[in-house]
Amino acid sequence: MSQNKKDLRAKYKNLRQELSEDTIQELSLDITNLAISLPIWDKTYFHIFLPIVEQKEIDTELILHLLAGKDKEIVISKANFETRAMIHFLLTDNTKIKKNEYNIPEPVDGLEVPSSKIDVVFLPLLAFDQKGNRVGYGKGFYDNFLTQCKPETIKIGLSFFEPETQIEGVFEGDIALDYCVTPKQIYTFNPIL
Question: Record-annotated residues binding ATP (predicted)?
Answer without folding.
Answer: 5-9, 134-142
